[in-house]
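User: Please predict structures.

Assistant: First:
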Amino acid sequence: MAEIVRRCEEAISLGLKWLVERVSDSGELEGSESILFGYYKALLTLTVAGRYLEAERVARKIKRDFYRDGQFGGEQYPAATVGPIYRDSWLTWGAHLAGRYDMSVPAANAISGQLCPTTGGVLVDGQGRVVDVGLTCCALTALLAAGRSHEVAKGADLVRALVEDQPEPREALYFRWSPERGYVRPAAGEDGRGWTVRRSESGQIYWYIGYALALMAQMNLLTGERKWIDAAEKLLAFVNGCHPEISESTSNGKIAWGCAELFAVTGDNGFRDVSARMTQWICDVQAQDGRWYRSPDQSTPVAFDATFERVFYLSRIARALQR
């Protein structure tokens, strides 16, 4: 794993160079000055990477222009394809790690208040009591990072149970569920990619799997209970049977991160090998100037989001795979 760790460190250094050169003295991101999408993962990544000056400048910018009463922004940027709790969770995690409790504590309170009191999960807007597993994992991770472990048990157990009890695990994973209707499947003509992952098909979006893997690792660290690893192993088996493009998908970064975290807590080489394979590809496709692309025509805010995200994942992966 030494070579993978070395490549992570090189990619992190190059990515950070591209990022920090575009942070102004006032904390604005060049080309995304007034667009919050570019800032989602900035605080977390800059803090993890030890860029404390830039992190504080960005924190001041976010507090000044985007933060109000425990929530961030409210913009409807076209690239933001999931609900605002996804955005708020990343920003809460980053603010707490950066020591900006003036934002993170009220924001964590707001996230906690959005959890369904019955299931502990995050509900999809406008769809009744439909739990979205990806958004739930994101919210619970932010609460864990903010020291709110007592508030995550119900939702995490729901995620684990929904992974364990999938109705068609040889064909697809469904990441939306209703207490009344059970697992939700896409309606005719509905694009359910992301919250539905079809095992043998190309063109899938995989980040829901990755966030669930990461949450299982975090819960195992928190509780020491084997049940979280059992659920993670089912996700790993699904990943290993997916269309080969999963190893070269722009949405696989969370799987590489989640599997690395699981290798760190289990020593299971199955998790290590999946993470290493995807990590190598992530490093391979980094642009020469240090940024990452999600599409050839991506906007500058998307470039910031993609690059902050991958620098963060690679920092966690390198730490975990050095075992």
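Second:
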Amino acid sequence: MGVTGPSRCRSCAEPLDAGDNFCGRCGADLVVPAAPGYGAVPPPPSYAPMVGAPAGAPSGAPAGPPPPDPTTRIPDEEIAGEGAPGADAPRPGAARRPVDPRVAGYEVVADAAAEAAGAARNAKAARDGADGGGTGEAPPGDAPAPEQTDPPDDTLHLCAICHSGALTPEGFCEHCGRAQPRERNHMEHELAGIAAVSDRGHRHHRNEDFFALRAMALPDGSPAVVALVCDGVSSATRPDEASRAASEAAGEALLASLPRGTHPQQAMHDAVLAASAAVDALAADPSLAHDEHRQQNAPACTFVGAAVGGGLLTIGWVGDSRAYWIPNDRTAPPARLTEDDSWAAQMVANNLMSEAEANADERAHAITGWLGADAYEVEPHTVTFKPDGPGVVVVCTDGLWNYADSAAQMASVLPVDSPDRPLNAAQALVTHALDGGGHDNVTVAVVPFPAPARG
């Protein structure tokens, strides 16, 4: 039976549907003067071309099922059945739900193409299986397994907040819409008898602290351990990158120098300079575009580190991150091993204010020393001690010592079994800061002295 008018675009031969005024492919105007009794655009053809069939295929050529009418309402039971097992094969005479009415006529073509591609894959799998390299796919002639649209249960990640919605590739919950916690929001690590914990806290939107733990053997074979903690300066650009770069660079520097026999104090000094160079390099990264509408300054962070080995305890720092010494014998006095590079410390050192007055000032936490390209000349502070008994070194950022300022306060919140359970001790200290308010990122490392023997 012939058709009463054109069923394809005159420009590109695109199949048309009833009511189309423009071609969905080339955009050509389809509204033309119509003969009496005829519409401007005739109804679609009564057949859908097979894959590979030319537009002008003879009427005797095999034809597929007719395309669905986009104006036809699909019964609810058919919509509900979509996605169910076996729903990919439509029931005889049932129209499939078009994705877009303009391309409804292409669904038959797309289905045929998919079936042809699946048959080709199965044939290839059969050939590979015959050669001993089978993939477990069905051989030709077997019905292909239903396509699985949902990821397997063991790879389905649920929202960490509502525990019911799946996650989008961007890290948002499909149910509650919330962004998922970043990996750095809470970090814990234990190595060779030392441990560190870092937490975002309750007020900051990200964790700008970072830590690094290293273990090595000295030239005489005795063990040595290193814990490094860095606090990103929030007012700087990319402080989280600065803290990570500094801690990892210093860790690698000490891992290389101490086994060679470098004195720990010199090794710590060189490690601080290596950390400074790593942070400086972030400011010169040419891959980062400069935003002229936002104020940008160089990435910056503070630094504190402890190295234990050979009967010595070495501390290095720049900024206001601290190290405390807590003897195992709690009747002996604890001590703070660092002096802050801060406005408050300068006021006290110059006898301009008492410690209480300076700490109460809103400028108390303004740092006067840091690592970064816009810092003054970096002058690492390094000291070496030879403790007369066993103890624990607590290395931390101000997120912790804001809630345990003095050495006595730090000793009172450090668990007594910290030499044997350093991770548990670090967790307890972070919990103390969070329970106190958690106004800042909190990072702490617990390092027993002497260095634990390597198992």
